[in-house]
Amino acid sequence: MGGPEHGIGLVAERLTRIIGRRHVLRDVSFRAGAGEVVAIVGRNGAGKSTLLSLLSGRQSPDRGGVRVESDGRVLSPRESATVVGFLPHDLFLYPDLTARENLAFFASLYGVRHADERIPLAIDAIGLPRDADRPVRTLSRGMQQRAAIGRLMVIGARVWLLDEPTTGLDEPGRAWLAATLDAAARRGVLVATASHYRAEVEAATRVLVLDAGRLVLDVAGGADGATRAFEVIEGGIVAARGGAA
Amino acid sequence: MTAGLRQFGAVLAKDARIEFRTRDIVYTMALFSILLVFVFAFAFLSDPSRTRDYGPGIVWVTLLFSATVGQNRLFDRERENGCLWSMLLAPVPAGVVFAAKATGHFLFTVAMAAVTVALIVVFFDLRVLDVGGFVGSLLLGTAGMSLVGTLFSAMLMNARMKEVLLPLVTFPVLVPVVIAGVKVTALSVGAPLQEDAGAWLRFLLGFDMIFGAVTVLLFGRMIRS
Predict the structure, then answer these.
(1) Distance (Å) from the C-alpha of residue A32 to the closest C-alpha of chain B?
(2) What is the C-alpha to C-alpha distance for residues A234 and A216, in angstroms, rounded to an integer?
(3) pLDDT of A119 higher than 90
(4) pLDDT for res A1
(5) B interface residues, A as partner, C-beta within 8 Å
(6) Within 13 Å of residue A15, how many CA atoms lie on the same side as its CB?
(7) In chain B, which residues have their Cβ closer than 8 Å to the Cβ of A109?
(8) ipTM score of complex
(9) Ordered DSSP codes for A159-227
């Protein structure tokens, strides 16, 4: 595992997002480096999707900031855009284009070299060789999810920000995703994924727990990390119920 | 090829491919424009001697309405699955996205105008004496409509009742384009006006240049906010 000074690095500094009067995210700071798989967990409404959205640049923080670094050098916004790949709930795929056409379109937008070779490889990697030429609209949610992961592969993203990526995936699909994220991390990709599932948290190298927009726990992943994370989440739920009573 | 041109081409080709597959915009625009031409034909053909007076107005009202119908659908495909954000988060200048969307709308509208204006010319027996001025005003006017309409269409993408709001915000801005277009078209078909077609064409060109620059610059900021 590399630190932020080697390979790609992502730095969040006191990220705060306020919507109306509510602090959706409050002073969240962390650093993550190449090869890390960071699971972001928390109750519904804890701020996981907002955090990923801020890290991707889709939303702007009210306070604080995000830096993307490569070998210790801070990347410009344009450079960051070339290395950060975001997979939100809405998948970023054109429903009336085929999976292959979507990948080709994004390859063209990102100026991917040798796209003709990379796209078939990505289609094989996501397990859609027979369905790649069907419009995305006609694919199941799980297949669409795979095609969306294929987009990150084709554009060569070095930071993968995934918002509950197992949505719609069956059990083999989840196993495939776990193996894919593991392989990506071994190649030096930094993966940050919002999740509710214990197995995914155990597979992570690091766990961040959000509660009511605050980062309340930052621990190493694995079984122990997952246990601690879910204890904290459960404790928060109990506290919230107690407070309400 | 520079990165901007490649990205411009990619967005334009993507829109053309989707349109070819779904025919959402072309069918709606075509149906609406042809319907308008028929309505105008039945309403005005009772006095064929005055076609030079009302023909140019019919051309521009048809063009304006059909362009607006197209603009209403322009960003629908970007809204689904958050696709607009997939482009805004890519290393693509927002101005390139805007230019490609506006160009796509311009090409659809010009294709539509080629059919509907030909129908109007035939139905109303308009004799075009200055083909250059006539075509030039249509191209420049359509470009102005595409620039203004694309910007507002993107802004209203997620608004409720955007079909109602879009004409409300674009028509006042486009009034000068329609006036200039009607003047040049009227002069092109030999209407007895004491006007200079060249001056109105230069006005249209100036409008396009100013709004082209402003909309390309504003698009990124407006769409993100």
Answers:
(1) 21
(2) 13
(3) yes
(4) 47
(5) 3, 6-7, 9-11, 14, 17-18, 21-22, 77, 80-83, 85-87, 89-92, 224
(6) 29
(7) 7, 10-11, 87, 90-92
(8) 0.88
(9) EEEEESTTTT--HHHHHHHHHHHHHHHHTT-EEEEE---HHHHHHSSEEEEEETTEEEEEEE-HHHHHH
Confidence of residue A5 (pLDDT cuts 50, 70, 90): low
pLDDT of residue A167: 83
Which residue is closest to B84 within chain A, CA to CA?
A: A92
Distance in angstroms (rounded) separating the CA atoms of residues A32 and A206? 9
Residue A107, token pair as written in the block: 């390859």
Nearest to A96 among B9, B22, B86 (CB): B22
- Beta carbons of A105 and B14 less than 8 Å apart: yes
Domain that holds residue A206: 8-240
| A220 Cα to chain B: minimum distance (Å) | 30
Task: Identify the pLDDT of residue B127.
Answer: 87
* Yes or no, beta carbons of B89 and A90 under 8 Å apart: no
- Single out the residue of A177, A174, A175 nearest to residue A150, CA to CA: A177
Nearest CA in chain A to B91: A81
Rounded to the nearest 10°, the torsion over CA B165, B166, B172, B175 is -150
Q: What was the pLDDT predicted at A101? A: 97
- Mean pLDDT of the region A172-188: 93
Torsion angle, alpha carbons of B85, B87, B91, B92, to 10: -130
In a domain, A167, yes or no: yes
Question: What is the Cα–Cα distance from B171 to B167, expressed in whole angstroms?
Answer: 5
Q: Is residue A113 part of a domain?
A: yes
pLDDT at A169: 86
| Domain containing residue A192: CATH number | 3.40.50.300
Task: Give the list of residues 6+ apart from residue A60 with CB closer than 8 angstroms, or none.
Answer: A54, B224
- The stretches in chain B having pLDDT less than 50 are none
Return d(Cα A87, Cα A168) in angstroms, integer.
Answer: 14
Mean pLDDT of A173-190: 94
CB pair distance less than 8 Å for A81 and B7: no
**Percent with pLDDT over 70 in chain A:** 93
Q: Is the pLDDT of residue A4 over 80?
A: no
Per-residue pLDDT band for A244 (boundaries 50, 70, 90) equals very low
Please count the structural domains in chain A.
1
Q: Measured between beta carbons, which residues in chain A are less than 8 angstroms from residue B80?
A: 94-95
